Each structure stands twice: as structure tokens, then as C-alpha cells.
Amino acid sequence: MQVFTPLEAGDPERVGPYRIVGRLGSGGMGRVYLARSPGGRATAVKVVHEELAEDAAFRRRFGREVAAARRVTGPFTAPLVDADPHADVPWLATAHVPGYPLGSAVAAHGAWPERSVRALGAGLAEALEAIHRVDVVHRDLKPSNVLLASDGPRVIDFGISMAADDTKLTRTGAMVGSPGYLPPEQLVGREVGPAGDVFALGALLVFAATGTGPFGGGHAHGVNYRVVHEQPGLEGLPDGLADIVARCLAKDPLLRPGVPELVGELGRWEGDEGTGGTFTPAAWLPAPVAADVGALGAAPLPDEAPTAPADPDLPTVTLGPAPTAVATAPLGAAPTRPSLAARLRGTARRRRTAVLASAGTLVVLAVVAALLLPDALSGSSGRGDGDGGTGSPTAAAKKLAASEQWSSDADLWRPVVADGKVVGVGNDGPLQAVDPGSGEPVWTYDDPSASSLEGVSDGLVIASGSENGTIQGIDLKRGKRVWSVPAKAHTAAGTTWNLYKRVVVADGTVYVNAMYDLPEDSERYGTYAVSAVDAATGRLKWTRTIEHILSDALAVVDGVVYGGVRESDGSYLYALDADTGDQLWRYRASASRNYSGEATAITVSDGTVYFGDSRSVLHAVDARRGTKLWTSEPDLDGVEEWLEPLMVVDGVVYGGTGDPTSDYGSGAVHGVAADSGRLLWTVSTEREPELHGPLDGSMLFSTRAGTLHAVDARTGGSPAETRLSTDDPDAAVAGGRVYFDGGDGRLHAGRISLTGG
After folding, report:
1. Which of 121, 679, 686, 692: disulfide with 733, CB 3.0–4.6 Å?
2. Within 13 Å, how many C-alpha atoms sit on residue 224's CB side?
3. Considering only CA atoms, which of 531, 535, 536 is closest in space to residue 550?
4. What is the Cα–Cα distance from 690 to 237, expressed in whole angstroms?
5. β-pair partners for 692
6. Which domains does the chain have, with CATH numbers?
7. Taking Cα atoms as reference points, which of 372, 392, 461, 453 lies closest to residue 420?
8. DSSP for 52-88?
9. Would you say 323 and 313 are in contact if contact means Cβ atoms under 8 Å apart?
């Protein structure tokens, strides 16, 4: 077992006096390398991202934070041993801890016993005490920044998040920190002090004790909203631990305990024999985690920089043989031949929605900080008392405006905002990226086999080609190809790739729904498959053949793939293990025998799968068992299908519906109670709508008529709108801005404001 990965092309050979020998990881601020000092000591060297290095404000603050971090000493921190904030690309070096990240340990072995959680909390509290003692605030305490060593936890990465605040990174919409661990005061733009780290500590203890965070999972904007407005989920915590955690997670930072108080309370943890706990592997760690930590400590470190070997199983467009065989498993018998009209409709819908479900890696719809309620810290949950009774925020919107910030010659189709770039496919073909602050071009990727943008994951743009099915991973920063996989990598023998019905990027993996043609003399028209490709390398992980008709909808959440399939006896929602492709369960959504009722939009929140189908029915299904919770059907004039994306915010499911047979048909936006399926409100729209998330107590959406709208999220009332374009604006919202096609062949950016009332 090793903690590093081989170096890749473009990685440095040396940073300052340190010889780089491997990769340890990467994050929002930079990339971390395993290095050896001139004397041979193992060191972790963090190299700051170049876009931050170009920001003068970041350099000044980075220098101050590094100076403060040098003074941090304590048994549960990784000490800073060297740094150069004035280098062309600033860097810092800390003592290397061959530790197991907390997030990886919980993912591999599950929730921890109370003894281990208390020991973890004691070590983290003592680490925070050492950090705060020299006036440093961590601001990004999360599972990946806690390493588990045999003699206790180590907190890493302190002193950088504060330096990155108020740089062009955050001014272009990024949020320093991780959803679920950011304190509410940071989310609404207030000053963050040591109490913010106490909040993150409480969230970490819940994660270790239960396997999930106190505010659930899902899209970042939903998690952040729950942090500000809802009480944490502490079910399953022992009473004594629950009391400590509840105080740490208080909305008001003044009500949280101080770090010295936590050191005293958590430091009284006991070993198995009832005696005072000591930090030995057997005493403080769960047994399977202790075994992994021991293996890490015994793993030798490289003397020279290893490089990734050529992989004969990795398919590329220009080089290398086909991949080895991947086991497949059918979901059922073959359907009859679908109609040509059905195929064409599926293609059109896939084109409209391909980039919307990149499962949390894209923060296309994230509306944080300024878009949350201003009274979030008053102690109120933000629940309204009107007839809606949904618990959604009360709207105060009367006037909606999108004040233009810039326009660009780039005319990007379905723009996506991610990691300080606006990315999209231009109307003239090439994949492009522009600066979100100015609209200036950053790079152009002029490859006709990358004609459809599918998502962004961990610094990679994922694109596919409609002609040959090639999937590519393109470096988001420079616009250079990292890997390329042809469709034949997941095409079964005797079939020919036809089209991708959906591509989703999630958790470092690219998941594809694809259709394949059969030989002309076949009784069936075609077959289908769901496949998984490693987003870092392009390696095919698994393929699962599905004989029936796959729907376009696909979602991947918490290690599970959710999708729809139409069979001869009805339509189904299925759940597959995201690591293996094995089926976990199948839920029958419709008993129709005419291949109708397919799933068209899917989201997952708090252990429930919500999906809408092509018969305008919204379903809620238990995510663990696949059992029905409820169904809801709005009273619509005609047959309409649910549209991507669905959103769950503050106990309400929000979604749009539209006419699947017309690009110019009307639509509607709905609010549905998440716990019962009760329809709360419906707002008709002149054209098909697309949701963009909550805004100051309202729900924001655009329509294909070219308008941006806001309605009261609780009642559907208090409508406000502003004109973006003469036609479909292809809008994306992030960081308080809307990016859209203005109908003039240019990409526009506007600052959103919602005022009055």
C-alpha cells in the first residue's frame, strides 16, 4: 500500500531544494508532491496553482500566512519546514505524514465506534489549539485534510485558505472550502474566526461516527443551503457525543464552545480497558483502519521519481491496442425495434441536457454566499408560515435584473462554469474556455471529435464526439488533451456504436449511457450499455450490457448509479454499484406496455431518489432499498415530461416540465413537498424552463423564450423576470452571475440582483 502515485508529464523535477519523487494529491489551492530534502528526509511540497500565483493580493496574504504557519507547533499538526512565497510559482513544504486520509478510511471501512471518534476529536481539537495560538484560522478543515497516523491524527493544509480569500479565484465565483464543513457565517460572507474551525470539527466528528456529514450530500448549493438554514442530522450519535457536536454546529459562532473547552471534554476519552486513552494504533483506531495505517507506515518511499508506465489496456485514438475484456451482465430480454422518431427524440433531449448532471464536480448551479438569505444567522430556520407550509424561504423579490458585466466574441453552447473558467462548445465547432471575470479567451481546443461538452471533473474537461464516439479528457487549465478513449472500448462484439444518450462525470469517473446498432439481419434494432471510465486515465473500469431501451436520465450519487430503462412490460428505475456495475435494486415505475413512462430527470437527496418521467409523474424511492415512498402528478393540460435538473432545497422538490414533442411548447415549474409528494404550487411558463437554484428566498429559472425568472420558493408567487435574449439563452448561473447566449452571436455575463418588496 502506498500513499503516492507516479509523476506525470509536466510535473516538476525539483521545487526549491526538494527533489520531487511522486504525487500525493491536489486541491483547490495547488498540487501536492512527495519530495526528498537535500538530506534525504521525506517532505510534502505544495505548489500553488498558477492562476493564484498571478494574483498580487494572494501573494501578499500567502506570505503573511506562511510566516504565521511557521510558528505552529504541536503533536497533531504537520509542521511547516520551508516555503518560498516569492517564487514564480509559490510553494511550501511540510513534514511528510504517511497517513491515511480520514475520508478514505471512512469510505473503505465505515463508521467509527465512539471511542475512536472521541480520540479523533481530542487530537483535532489539540491541533486547532496549536493553530489558533499563533492567530491562524484553518478555514478548510475537512476529511481529506485530516491524515490518520499510528500515533494520532494530523491536520494539514493550514494557512493557505485564508491567503486565497478575496483573490481573483473567489471573485470569479469559487468558494474557498468544502460543502458541509464551511460554517454558515462563511457562506453568507461574514468574517470567519476560530469558531468556524470548531464548526468544521463538529461536522468531521459526525462524518466519522455515521459515515456521512451532518447536512447530507448532493449538489453543493443544496448542502450549503442546509448548513445555513437547517439543523444538523445527529441521529445515531451517542448522547454524550451528540451534545458536544450540537454545540460545535451552532449557527451562531458565539454559541460554539472554545477549542480549550473541547480539548478538555474530548481529551477524556478512554481505551477499551476503561483506562485513559493513549494514541497507539490499537487504542485509538478501528482495527481495519489501524491495519491500513500500519501498511502505509511500512511502505517504502521511492528514491527516484517514478513515472507512470505505458498501459497496454488503455485505449486511445492514436495509440495502443483495444482494452481487455470486461464482464457484462444483461438486465433483461430484448425489446422490439424502437421507432426512428424515438431515436431522434432521444438524441435531441440528450443534446439539451448532457452537461447538467456532473454530480457535484461542476458547480454550475451553485448559488452561495450572496445568494443565501441575509438573516441566516438570526436563529430562524427560514421557514415560512404561509399556506404553502413547505419550509422554504420567504421571498422578498420584486425586481430581477442581470446587469451586463461583459460580452465576448465566443458564443458558447451550454456554457459550464468550473474552476475559474467558462467552458462550452462554440457555434462554429471548437471547444473553448473564457475567463469568467472578463470574457477574454483562455484556450481553444479545435478537435472535431470533441463536439459535445459532457462535464468537468478534477481539472479535466470531458468531451465526446457525435460522429465516432470518442471520449476525451482535456486539461481545464491549458486546453490540452490528457487522454482519449474510442467508443470501441465499451462496444460489445457484433455491435456498432450509435450514440451517447447521456454522459455524467462524478467522483473521478465518467459514466456513459450508450446505444449500439446490431447487424442488419437482427430481429432487434439495437442494444444498450452503461459504462464507467476512469476520469484521470481514461481506463475502462466496467461495462454493463442492457438489452432494453435506456432512458436519457442518469445520476451518480454516493457510489450508486441511477438510471432508467424501458422494457416490454413497463419502465423501471435501476441502481448499480458505481465501482462494479452490479445491480443493487430495480423499481417498477410504470406498467405500461408501449414503452412509455421512461425516467427523464433524476436527483438524490437525504437517502431518497426523486425522479420524473415522460408521463409527468414524479416519484420518490428509498435510495437504499428501492421501495416506493410516493408519487405525484401535476394537473397538466397535456402529456409533459419532467426536465433536468430536479432540485431538493429545504424540504421541497423543485422541477420543470415541458412538451417533449415541441421545441416551442409551453412548460411549467413546480414545487412539491419532499416528504409527501403534495403539490405545493405550479407556475406556467411560456416556453420550456430550466432551473438554476435558490436566490434570496426565490427559485431562479430561465426559459427557452430568453427570459430569466424568479418566483417565491414557498408559494410560487411574487414573480419577477428580466430579458436575456430573443431565444433560448443557454444560461448557466454561478457566483452571482448568469452567463448566456444573447442571441447576437456573443456570450454575455450579467451580475444578478433581486431587489424590492
Report:
1. 692
2. 28
3. 531
4. 39
5. none
6. 47-297 (1.10.510.10), 340-755 (2.130.10.10)
7. 461
8. HHT-HHHHHHHHHHHHHHTT---TTB--EEEEETTSS
9. yes
Distances (CA, A) of 127 to 130, 136, 157, 162, 704: 5, 12, 12, 17, 52
Nearest to 612 by CA among 573, 642, 653, 571: 642
pLDDT value at position 160?
Answer: 53
Amino acid identity at 96: H
**Residues 549-571: what's their mean pLDDT?**
89
Per residue in 443-490, pLDDT (tens digit) is 999 888 888 888 888 889 999 987 788 999 999 999 999 999 999 889
Q: In this predicted model, what pLDDT tens digit does every residue of 257-274 receive, in sequence order? A: 999 999 989 988 765 554
Provide the strand spans (E) within 507-640.
Answer: 509-517, 526-534, 540-546, 549-557, 560-567, 570-577, 583-590, 599-605, 608-613, 618-622, 628-632
CB 44 within 8 A of CB 34: yes
Residue 177: closest CA among 157, 195, 194, 154: 157
**Crossing angle of the two packed helices 239-248 and 194-210, in degrees rounded to 10:** 150
**Residue 188, helix vs strand vs coil:** coil
User: What is the pLDDT confidence band of residue 430, given thresholds at 50, 70 and 90?
Assistant: confident
DSSP character string of 405-447: EEEES--EEEEEEETTEEEEEETTS-EEEE-TTT--EEEEE--
Q: What's at 532, amino acid-wise? A: A
Q: Of how many residues is the chain composed?
A: 757
Residues with Cβ within 8 Å of 654's Cβ and at least 6 positions away in sequence, in order, are 646, 647, 648, 669, 670, 671, 672, 691, 699, 713
CA angle, 114 then 119 then 123, to 5°: 150
Secondary structure (DSSP) of 452-493:
EEEEEETTEEEEE-TTT--EEEEETTT--EEEEE-GGGGPPT
Q: Which grid cell is 2? A: 502506498
Q: For residue 378, what are the contacts with CB-CB under 8 A and spacing of at least 6?
A: none
Active site residue 140: yes
What is the spatial order of strands in the sheet that 720-723 belongs to?
689-695, 698-703, 707-712, 720-723
Segment 107-130, tens digit of pLDDT: 888 899 998 999 999 999 999 999
> Phi-psi region for residue 178, left (φ > 0), alpha (ψ -120 to 50) or beta?
beta
**Structural contact between residues 690 and 643, judged by C-beta atoms closer than 8 angstroms:** yes
Distance, in Å, from the CA atom of 265 to the CA atom of 124, rounded to the nearest integer, reads: 12
| Catalytic annotation, pick one of 11, 55, 84, 140 | 140
What nine digits make up the cell of 194?
476560530
pLDDT of residue 340: 28
CA angle 44, 46, 50 (to 5 degrees): 160
Q: What one-character-per-residue DSSP string does 98-159 give?
A: --EEHHHHHHHH-PPPHHHHHHHHHHHHHHHHHHHHTT-------GGGEEEETTEEEE--TT
Question: What one-letter code names the amino acid at 699?
Answer: M
What residues have CB less than 8 Å from 753, skipping those under 6 apart? 399, 400, 401, 402, 403
Distance CA 219, CA 362 (A): 9
